[in-house]
Fold this protein.
Amino acid sequence: MHKEFLMGNEAIALGALAAGVNLVAGYPGTPSTEVLETIAKRNPGNVYVEWSINEKAGMEVAAGAAYAGARALVTMKQVGLNVASDPLMSLEYIGVKGGMVVLVADDPGPISSQTEQDTRTFAMFSKVPVFDPSSVSEAYEMIQEAFDFSEKYGTPVFFRATTRVDHGYEALEVKDPEEYFVNKPEGFVKDPSRWVIFPRLSVKNHALIEKRNAELKNVFSEYHRNKILREEDTAKCRKGIATQGVNFMYTLDSLHDKNARVMRVATPFPFPEKLALDFLAGLDEVLCIEELDPVIERALTYVCGKYSLDVRIRGKLTGDIPPSGENSMEIVRGALAEFLKNEEDETGEDGTVVAPAAAELPQPPALPVRPPVLCAGCPHRASFYAVKTAMRGKKTIYCGDIGCYTLGNAAPLDMCDTCLCMGAGIGIAQGVGHIEPDTKCFAFVGDSTFFASGITGTVNAFYNQADMTLIVLDNSTTAMTGHQPHPGTGRTVMGQVVEKVSIERVLRAIGLTVVETVDPLDYALSVETVKRVADEPGVKAIIFRSPCIAISKPKGRSHVDPDKCIGCGKCIRELGCPAIILDSDGKKAKIDTSVCTGCTLCEQLCPVKAISGGAKNDTAKGGRHE
Amino acid sequence: MSKNIILCGVGGQGTILASRLIATAAMDKDIPIKTAETIGMAQRGGSVFSHLRLGEGINSPLIGKGEVDLIIGFEPGETVRQLPFLKQGGAVVVSSRPVMPVSAMIGQSKYDAEAMVEYLKANVEHLTIVDADKAADELGSAKVLNVVLLGAALRSGELGLEESDLENAIREKVKVPEKFLELNKKALSWSKGGK
């Protein structure tokens, strides 16, 4: 054992390695990405690791490995689970031989996601057991236990953490590689009655799943991470608190030494019913403190109904806890203070939870408004600006997608009219076009997103005779999640150099005849290309190719000649580049050289040619920047 | 000893590295530590913060309002945003240099950074203002602002660490050539003369 300071996702990765994981697949997505990256980095050499092209592919690769007796891990964020749900729903009916953990990172807030969906609810829907860690150090232990449970019961299991566990840090004791469990896969054993899903097998296995999950309710009641705190000390308590995940930590810190009966639920499905009955004994009221869906609240309400218990269950459904968003110390402390008001426990102490005194503050001046923006010199800015200029005065729709380029929605670019989910922009552009044939329909998709889920939509457009322009914003990386490789980069997560998948050739193979590739940092050529291509009939594509600023170094940075600058403000007003600011007089443009990347877009735009000096390397570096 | 610290600024300013440096220094001294970071979309020029909790008996990685001993602000407006977390009598170290949001540059919002500094002066007794422009001029680099601020935080007395602890952490964490190590050391001690 040795001590390390680890991010939650790193701890989960090391836990999986300690559990003898043989294969890891996944698709990047905040807040899950670092799990797979850490396994790649800390790989003792015998673990197969891949960035799959999407979550469905990753789920299937992991399932295959588990069929062969391997311990397998697949990683994704919560919306990625939607993509992977088709194989998972059926996989639960088939089961696994080796332990298989489906790691899903949920994002209360949401901080970096489209939805606030709750994987605990998905667990109930898919009948897959779920583990819900409360801290970084617990996550390290719990994922090892999750592999054991999965193998023992022959089912995939969810390991779902939320942002504050995934992206929290703690110093903890971890195993040395020599101490890792070694799992030797037996290999796939042919047996069509087990591995081939037919209705007859499904109906048989469905019954077995229900029986097993009923049994797991009891098994999980004995699982040491499902627990009641200070059960004996609180025998006379009339009020109890049921909680989960990081909310358990907020609860502990809010209660301090206050004697209250607390149940922590580590496996919300199958719900530890026996344990809940022990917890509920003698209580009048329970406050459920949880994030996302009221899963524990519903489960306890059900238990009370089933056993005719006269206990009032409170939480999100009763308005005591906010129905959406991330909880904070304030929310938890406030709800506890309100709930425990007038509560006297056996020591006679007052139940009030007191918040420490903050300084009294007057109303501050208007705080800066900071939505996230495209980086200085981001090639997406140039691509958006070229399309905007080329289409000026025309009736258009710009369908965006998931990635850094969603940030093209912000003023002054205002180039993202829709955004739904990975790859959806291509379909939406078609749908709008079928209803409004006089609209020029554009779909913007990133290179990684194109491979993840853009190809199907493009085939659909071509086959169904849509009239649209596909713009692929190829910055040679998966930028938003921290620069992961993808099929177009010719590099794998383990650093292997492989043949690149060419976006141009994929598009031509589908049947597109107009496929043009242009450097978006060449402004005039880009505008001319967009004008020409958008007027072609049918489905046509432009690939704007220029590396992400984080993986390419500038050769020179731009500066403004104050004698030439006329202070017209065009560069600032039109581009919204964070590197262009005003000089100390507030009149002329000035470039912050600490952030300029020398993209030269502003130089090409300046009506009096007052900006010069920028230069960019046009090839991406192999490794990650920072 | 237990300390609650918030580092705040704008995505890209280096708050995460500074937070890692404090954590490394604390871990080397066997002080238990928990942190929570902003990672994701907000790293693209949005408001970011790190919560750090040092000491025994801590469960939650997030800190509640009125519980923070020290705010290390990389930007005046972002520091004002976090001020409700400061406990009575807590300390603030702040860089005077604003980062103008694009929304303010194109006239969609207003940002008066001087008013922010004035507000901090009026409402924080234990305040250290770091002249980031002066530090950048004298050190010849704007990129070590995070280390300059850590130095000022040391001297606020609220960090609970020694200069040598952070020096060691920089050597461990920022695995850079000797000349940059020297620059970082200078940055760490810059606020001794330059308050």
